[in-house]
Amino acid sequence: MNGFTILEIIVSIAIFSLVLVLVISFLISTNASDSKTKASRETIDNARTALETIIYEIRGAKSIYTPTTTANQLSLETTKYLPQDETSTFIDFFLCGTALCLKKESQDPIALTSDSVQVASLTFLQILNGATPSIKVSLTVNYVNPSGDINYSSSATLTSTASLRSY
């Protein structure tokens, strides 16, 4: 007899269905893992870039402008970004809403973090050890998770300390 029995057809369909379910489960798992990795990468990249910018500006600053520097805002006197006919200018780092912003004197603030993250915490601590002032910066950034799914949440806390080089 040529042909398949009903039992052979049922077993073949069952094996095919099992393989199909395994492949689909693998693809769904891979997609979820990719989304989690993307959220984590976006969070860490934003935090790292923002912190590197702050540290770079601290190292190049002339002095810390203490009248407007608080635990949540850093004001620096610098010789970069000079307006015409000026010998020094001021830049500020602060939270504007849920973004970390840099404001140069006489200009609008520029967000240093993207809309895909929110800055949960920003603190500046002045450290006076000898003649060279230093600033400890702590930054916590959370991924904006519109779906609310806990699997796609991500947070990064970075801390660094920098000294003024031109002091």
From TrEMBL:
The chain crosses the membrane at residues 6-28. InterPro entries: N_methyl_site, Pilin-like. Keywords: Membrane, Transmembrane, Transmembrane helix. It comes from the Bacteria. The keyword Transmembrane helix applies. NCBIfam families: IV_pilin_GFxxxE (TIGR02532). This is Prepilin-type N-terminal cleavage/methylation domain-containing protein. It comes from Candidatus Staskawiczbacteria bacterium RIFCSPHIGHO2_02_FULL_34_10. The lineage of its organism: Bacteria, Candidatus Staskawicziibacteriota.
